[in-house]
TrEMBL record:
Pfam families: PPR. This is Pentatricopeptide repeat-containing protein. The lineage of its organism: Eukaryota, Viridiplantae, Streptophyta, Embryophyta, Tracheophyta. Belongs to the PPR family. P subfamily. Keywords: Repeat. SMART domains: SMR. The keyword Metal-binding does not apply. PPR repeats lie at residues 163-197, 198-232. Gene3D superfamilies: 3.30.1370.110, Tetratricopeptide repeat domain. Residues 333-417 form the Smr domain. PANTHER family: OS02G0120000 PROTEIN, OS03G0856100 PROTEIN.
Length: 424
């Protein structure tokens, strides 16, 4: 599923803990010296003089071996700010089950059910969270167990909310577990029960089939979406494109891009990412920073067949207009959210667009030109931004006046007039 958010609000300790718990699965448990941190009191996290509950090195050293996750959770619950949350318990249960610690997982489930008592909605949500957590870890044992319980709960409930929420989690979970046919059957079961499947359920099944290369089934579900009046949107289209791309079906991607245009569906950054990640010629060129083309014209000269046609469709879209700003004080290009191929093509488009604006004489020359590429905080190797490296190479090769901003290392800056002289 595609999820976006621009909130810059500080994460709560609970949210931070949830992220830590999920990362522990990749760490394989906590060993001595692997983790040592302080957790700021949520009342005023910015104050350094405030007493802060700390998970010490010694405490972390105790969280070793097969009991690591549960002992870590126990330590966290002792913090003054800790507030019990069934969603966190569900995440931990999934981690324990994935490691084969079924008894420990069952104990936590029993404790949670006891705490929730007879509150049907809260119990249903907890089991929805269990299904979702197990599916994200591809844990068949835990998923099947939680799924069976939730399915039974659904049939025993008279609440429309509980039924809808349960179907949503089961359909999403089955697709995560690469079982889209079962999820597809659940959509039909929803209809039989008088429930209306939402766009979320349809998208889950579309992508579930698509990931496995079952394109006929994928397109049948897309058609089903149109029948009950659920419009195909950019998000769903990007899932279709991503599915085709994962199986190198470039011709099918081209057909779908043209369908999007005929339906007046706007392309997005995700559209660029899905398409260009599948263009092997471009991705191979970007591995050799000293050789890739530095203009749209040069790029068109080395692309052939479907790749050339795909790039043509992208360049004719309005995505560039959405990520660039032109104002008297500043002209800005924001590359956030773009994969390497997308950032490369957008930069080439931007150079041409800037040159046209400067040559037209209709626009005021901005005081400053900025390219925002980020500093690598979210890259797979922290602190190393592939996009920033690409921008740097392009600026050097093209002898651009733009340099890394001393105040913000995630940006390249230059005076507007210097950029005009360079491009024109």
């Amino acid at each position: 599923m595609e999820k976006w958010g621009n909130s810059k609000a500080m994460l709560s300790p609970i949210t931070s803990y949830a992220q830590m718990m999920l990362s522990l699965n990749q760490m394989g448990g906590i060993g001595s010296g692997q983790l040592s941190f302080s957790i700021a009191s949520p009342s005023n996290p910015m104050r350094s003089d405030q007493t802060r509950p700390t998970l010490s090195h010694q405490a972390c050293s105790q969280c070793q071996g097969r009991q690591g996750h549960k002992q870590f959770y126990s330590k966290i619950t002792e913090a003054s700010w800790f507030e019990w949350n069934p969603k966190l318990v569900a995440a931990l249960v999934a981690l324990l089950d994935k490691q084969g610690q079924h008894n420990e997982a069952e104990v936590l489930i029993s404790e949670t059910i006891s705490k929730l008592g007879s509150r049907e909605r809260e119990l249903a949500l907890f089991h929805c969270q269990l299904v979702e957590s197990h599916s994200k870890l591809s844990s068949k044992h835990g998923f099947d167990s939680s799924y069976s319980y939730l399915y039974q709960l659904l049939h025993n409930s008279s609440s429309v909310y509980v039924k809808n929420r349960a179907f949503e989690s089961m359909i999403s979970g089955l697709c995560e577990m690469d079982r889209p046919r079962e999820a597809d059957n659940l959509i039909e079961e929803m209809r039989v029960k008088g429930l209306k499947p939402s766009v979320f359920e349809f998208r889950s099944v579309v992508y579930g089939y698509g990931r496995l290369g079952l394109f006929e089934d994928m397109l049948k579900v897309v058609e089903q979406m149109e029948n009950p009046g659920i419009a195909i949107d950019t998000i769903c289209s990007n899932m279709v494109l991503s599915s085709y791309g994962a199986h190198s079906e470039l011709a099918a991607m081209l057909v779908w891009l043209r369908k999007m245009k005929s339906l007046s569906l706007p392309f997005s950054i995700r559209t660029y990412n899905s398409v260009l990640n599948s263009c092997l010629t471009i991705m191979a060129m970007l591995q050799e920073p000293k050789d890739f083309p530095c203009s749209i014209e040069e790029l068109n000269g080395v692309l052939n067949g479907d790749e050339a046609l795909l790039v043509k469709e992208l360049v004719e879209s309005t995505v560039l207009d959405e990520v660039m700003v032109w104002e008297p004080l500043e002209a800005k290009l924001d590359l956030h959210g773009m994969h390497l191929g997308s950032a490369y093509l957008i930069l080439l488009e931007w150079f041409e667009a800037m040159r046209c604006r400067f040559n037209s004489g209709k626009d005021v020359i901005p005081a400053e030109v900025v390219v925002i590429c980020g500093s690598g905080k979210h890259s797979s190797v922290r602190g190393e931004s592939p996009v920033k490296g690409l921008v740097k190479q392009m600026m050097l090769r093209m002898e651009s006046p733009m340099r890394i901003d001393r105040k913000n290392v995630g940006c390249f800056v230059a005076k507007g007039r210097a950029v005009k002289d360079w491009l024109c």
